[in-house]
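Our consortium's second objective concerns turning raw sequence data into structural hypotheses that experimental partners can test. To show how far this objective has progressed, the report includes one record in full. It was chosen at random from the queue rather than selected for favorable results. The single chain below, 655 residues long, was entered without modification.
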Amino acid sequence: MIVGLTAYAQAKKIVVNNVSEASYQTVRQVANNMNVVLQTFDDLSLQIIVDTDIRTAINKLQNNQDNFLITRDIIERLNNYLMTNDKIKGIALIPSNPADEVISAGTINVDLNADAVQEKAWYNKTLEASGKSVWIAPEAEGLLSSGSADTFGLGRLLTGFISEDHGYTLLMDMNVDAFFARYDDVQLGEGSQLTLVDSEGNVVMAKDLPRIGAAFNVTLPSEGKQAEFGQPKLTDKDGHKFLAAYQKLESSDWRLVGTIPVANLYQDAKVIQTLTWVMVLFAMIIAIIIGYMVIATIANPLVKLRNLMVEGANGNLTVRSTIRKRQDEIGQLADSFNEMMSQITSLAKQTTRSADEVLLTAADLTDASNKTSIAAKEIAVATEEIANGATSLAVEAEKGSDLTNHINRQMKQVMDANEQMSESATEVEKASRQGTAYMGILTEKTGITEDMTRSMVAKVDALKESTGSIVKILDVLDNLTKQTNILSLNATIEAARAGAAGKGFMVVADEIRKLADQSRQSIDVVGQITEKIQGEIEETVKVLSDAYPLFQEQIVSVKDANEIFLKVQMQMGQFVDKLGLATEAIGGLNQSQAVLSDAMTSVSAVAEQSSATSEEVASLSSEQLSISNGLVRLSDKLDAVSKGLKESLMKFKVE
């Protein structure tokens, strides 16, 4: 059931996704085609408003020339455009002055006047568009023809005339059926619909004409990119779910929407759900049959065996199973039950016989235990007197042993402290050797640092001399620049004396003077940088000169520290040798103390052993007495148990 329902849910999801994508692509293609068709109408309207004959005729009307003839020429021209496209029902030129006459061609309302048209909302939008095309949704009372909502229009203001007060607005009235019928063969699925919806959510075009002008049954997104295209799953006011695919037209704010009822998409997938329930029902029937077979072949025999076990537990050891012909586990269980009951019957018979024998033995054991108990009481009294004397000797020996052990522990503490001092002295000596080695390395590195500092001072002095050379070169270049400047000035004077023949040379002299000025400026910049470098070099020399005595003092301090480490190393070596001699003396004293401790321990051990032996004998005597009493009690208990066992076995039926 889980697999089937999961497959059904997955199939619904796949169908919805595939249909959604396919529907969106179809709607997108239809929208592109619709853009092309609407662009044709747009181009035709532009062709009309730029028509030279029509514009010339309108100018004549504004000059109050022969109105009838001019109007007839305009109508003829409009009729020519009507014949080029059979989807256009009528074309009208609406005057901006209500006193002027509406010029129209094709199927129009004979009572159409400028006052009624100028009250329309689309007319004001057309004026605000200033010559751009405005698409007009169908209206219940019609656009040019009366009482018909099966047309939509295109409005455009005619601009660029002599008098704007007597201007005109072009209105093209087009047949919805003729335009929208070309998309009748577009099918998105069963129950699908194609609809043109304006920005306010009202139906502009649909195959079902009564829907035109009414609110669309689902609410589409109105902000962001989702307002231009998308393929969401939406719900109408009645709670029906629809799969919508929509695309905004390029030539207007209308959106082409394709809707498919989601319930229709699931019809093919319901076969999976139906098949799932059929298989679940079939599986339930098979499970019932298998359950009945399990009850008949397994549960009933197990119930019979359980009842036989309960009867056997109640004391009837003669029960046996009658299941003998089966070779499966149930049959093996029945055979094992019969064998178990046979063995329990044999065990019960043997236990009955053993109980009789134990009952006879218990009587003999009771008599022997009573005699042993009397003898044990006499032995216990004599042993207790011996134990009291041995205990006093053990106490005195124990005191001497404790005193010897206390002295021994103190000697061990002295030896441990001496060993720790020896280890610490060894570690100090080792640290002194490492410090001496480290100080030697530090002395070498400090000498190297001193050499490097001395070398750095020499290099900085050389750099200072080089900087001085650069300053001298800059002075030479500065003088050269001054001479060049004077030379260019003289050349300019000579060129001025030469008149027109020296103008070219005057330009060259002027450029040489500019070059000399630039060189002088560069030399000044380089001189400033060189002075800055020279100042920093002098500061570096000063710092190095101040640091050099410090390095020398550091070397002297390192050498003094090295000598201190050497003295510490020598003194710690002598201290380690003296600690070794003290350790040997304490070791000899410890051996003597150990001999004394062993002697006291032996005395204490002998006394304790004597006391323990006496106490053990007394304890054994007491224990023997206790055991004798226990034997008497056990004999009595064994006699009672034997009688109880015999009475219990008499409850079982073994024959």
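The partners drew two points from this record. The first helix runs from residue 2 to 49. The chain is about 70% helix and 10% strand. Both points have been shared with the crystallography group to help prioritize constructs.
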